[in-house]
Amino acid sequence: MTNRVSVIGLGKLGATMAACFAERGFEVIGVDINPHSIEAVNEGRAPVQETGLDALIAANKDRIKATASHVEAVLGSDISFVIVPTPSDERGAFSLQYAAWAFKEIGRAIAKKDTYHNVVLTSTVLPGGTREALLPILERESGKKAGRDFGLCYSPEFIALGSIIKNFLNPDFTLIGELDDKCGSQLEELYSRVVENGAPSARMSLENAELAKISVNAFVTTKITFANMLAEICEQLPGGNIDVVSNALGLDTRIGRKYLTGGLGYGGPCFPRDNFALNFFAKELGVTAGLSSMTDTMNRSVAAKVVERLRPMIRDNVTVAVLGLAYKPFSHVTEESQALFIAQALSKAGARVVAFDPLASEMPQSELNGGFVVIDSLSDCLRQAQIVIIATPDPVFAALTADDFKNEFATVTVVDFWRLLQSELSEKPNIKYLAFGLGIDDDAKAKRLRNLWVGPETERLTTTAK
């Protein structure tokens, strides 16, 4: 039974996995090249910002230690999880340079070990990356044979920043790509003692697991984009309501409700690049992947559509407040954030843009690459705005009332992409409330539908019926 675990890479996922393993009773050694991360872990502090991580590491300080030595980590554990960056390259593929360096160090450590060691790659790679590029490094540097002297698995996690602890301990399933049955069985047994919800394991070849990982994220991006398309259609219908439509679709077990909420497009460090990478990989194999390409194109058009919608209202000295800068609630990450793109685009279009985010507002202005002002007070942000955009469904914004939008301007326009304040702001004096995905009952929309379906043929049938 495996009781000693090492985690190579103490970023958001790696540090959280290390803390979760310790919480579940494992002895954990973390490895990182950053001395500040090592120091933080050894002092019982989180090396990165993630919801609940600081408390979890502090509570399990006696079972976690960190080092810069791969040899110390490998010799002191039975299984190593490798969570290092695999950034997108200019082709849209995933670069293996950091993983290759880590595998070289792990291979040299395995050379000094007399017993079997299992290596688990958690970083996202494309099919073939683990077996064809990284496995030979382990064999060359260790002088040993995979399958006989050490194991190799590919087991990525399906997590969201801001809720990694919950996602890791309560997954829908654990994905295990295995070199052989021995290493896969060891990893499956370990997961059975880690997950709290009894989630099943899906075991398969390394290549199938690599494809499954990017396919999950690519499918989710397609679902998000489909919901956003439906939301745009609903806006053109008398009484159209994306939530009513989505709730009905979600009742169908073939579809489900998750990720079917119309709103802004997707962002973050995983969804955009995984979708793009699947498109790249399919093309390399001679497979047409138009769906992934179109999903990416539609998602990248969101900011421009928002600017065009607001352009008639944008004039000199108009201040627009963007509520939410991170790509999702409970995270400070702004990578590929639709809200950030919108703030930048509105600024270029001539608006004075102020922004607030419960977490991302703490980031240095230079890191946001903005051209807009980040304010650390929600009330100060709203006090200045003639137009307010609710860009993320953060509970802080859902708790706002009509009084919070009162300022010196006669009318404040609120564009609510998540319909958080529909009941609170609809038909309130001095507030023009525009909810994405909701159609207004007006003659123009009714006339458009009437013109679409009422013609000579339907008029003849109607007359005959009478």
Describe this structure in words.
The protein is of the alpha/beta class and 466 residues long. The chain contains 20 helices and 14 strands. The chain has helices spanning 12-23, 35-42, 53-59, 70-75, 97-110, 129-142, 164-169, 181-194, 206-235, 242-250, 271-284, 290-300, 302-310, 338-348, 365-368, 378-383, 395-398, 422-425, 443-453, 456-465; strands at 4-8, 27-31, 64-67, 79-82, 117-121, 150-154, 174-178, 201-204, 319-323, 352-356, 373-374, 387-390, 412-416, 431-435. The strands form two sheets. It has an eight-stranded mixed sheet with strand order 3-2-1-4-5-6-7-8, with helices on both faces. Helix 6 links the parallel strand 5 and strand 6. The model has no long low-confidence stretch (mean pLDDT 92).
Key traits:
14% strand; 20 helices; 466 residues; globular; alpha/beta; six-stranded parallel beta sheet; eight-stranded mixed beta sheet
In short:
The protein is an alpha/beta fold and 466 residues long. It has helices at residues 12-23, 35-42, 53-59, 70-75, 97-110, 129-142, 164-169, 181-194, 206-235, 242-250, 271-284, 290-300, 302-310, 338-348, 365-368, 378-383, 395-398, 422-425, 443-453, 456-465, and strands at residues 4-8, 27-31, 64-67, 79-82, 117-121, 150-154, 174-178, 201-204, 319-323, 352-356, 373-374, 387-390, 412-416, 431-435. The model has no long low-confidence stretch (mean pLDDT 92).
Topology at a glance:
Elements: E1 4-8, H1 12-23, E2 27-31, H2 35-42, H3 53-59, E3 64-67, H4 70-75, E4 79-82, H5 97-110, E5 117-121, H6 129-142, E6 150-154, H7 164-169, E7 174-178, H8 181-194, E8 201-204, H9 206-235, H10 242-250, H11 271-284, H12 290-300, H13 302-310, E9 319-323, H14 338-348, E10 352-356, H15 365-368, E11 373-374, H16 378-383, E12 387-390, H17 395-398, E13 412-416, H18 422-425, E14 431-435, H19 443-453, H20 456-465
Parallel strand pairs: 1-2, 1-4, 2-3, 4-5, 5-6, 7-8, 9-10, 9-12, 10-11, 12-13, 13-14
Antiparallel strand pairs: 6-7
Helix pairs in contact: 1-3, 5-6, 9-11, 9-12, 11-12, 13-14
